[in-house]
Every structure is written in C-alpha cells, then in structure tokens.
Amino acid sequence: MKEKRSYYVNMIEATDGKMAEVLNFNFGGHHDIAAMVEKAKTFGFAKDKHAKEFVLAMRFMHHVIKKNPENPLFAEFAAQFEAFKKNVKAKAGCDCGCK
C-alpha cells in the first residue's frame, strides 16, 4: 500500500502591500509533489516556478475529474486529459502505478 500524503494549500493575494487569504484547503494522495516538481523541471519550462504550477495544475485537475466522472463539464475533455497525463508520466519516468 502506498503512503498517504497530505498537503495544505493556502493562497494569499498581495495587493498594494496588503496580504489577504483568498482560499485554503487540504489535498492528499500518494504522490510526492516535491519529487514530481523535480522531474517536471526536466521538461524545459522557462522558469522553475512553471514546473511547480504545471505539477499542481495536473494534480488538481486529475483529482477533480476523478472525483466527478459524471460531470458533463468534463465529458469531452476527460479522455484527452487522461492521454496527456499518461504521456507526461511516461516522459517523467513515473512508476507509481496509479491511474
């Protein structure tokens, strides 16, 4: 059984020198987000922060689609996203065995 990991996401908006929390939530799974970011850095992004944004976007989108498979919003997109995700995992050398 894979180790369960838990992450806490906290987004703070900085406007005119003022900080305000705009959202926060817990997110979990068996993926090591930091390791995924390190692998994603090899994909040729212009900046390291783009690798971080990419990994988080992929994880969040995968999670939402997986938890809401009947949502018509994803009807046309889910199959293409799944193919894209598998391609990314193959390029990254991911062997986590998850779907």
Chain-wise SSE layout:
Elements: E1 5-15, E2 18-29, H1 33-40, H2 48-67, H3 78-92
Helix pairs in contact: 1-2
Structural description of this entry:
Helix 1 (33-40) packs across helix 2. The model has no long low-confidence stretch (mean pLDDT 91). With 99 residues, the protein is an alpha+beta fold. It contains three helices and two strands, in the order E-E-H-H-H. It has helices at residues 33-40, 48-67, 78-92, and strands spanning 5-15, 18-29. Strands 1-2 form a two-stranded antiparallel sheet.
Ranges where pLDDT stays below 50 over 5 or more residues in a row are: none
> What summary fits the major beta sheet?
2 strands, antiparallel
Helix vs. strand class: alpha+beta
Mass-distribution shape: globular
Question: What fraction, in percent, of the residue positions are helical?
Answer: 40-55%
Count the DSSP helices.
Answer: 3
Q: Tell me, rounded to a whole number, the average pLDDT.
A: 91
- Strand segment count: 2
* Oligomer kind: single chain
Strand order of the largest sheet: 1-2
**From N to C, what is the helix and strand string?**
EEHHH
Beta strand %: 15-25%
Task: For the record, give the distance between the C-alpha atoms at the N and C termini, rounded to a whole number.
Answer: 15 Å
The radius of gyration is: 15 Å
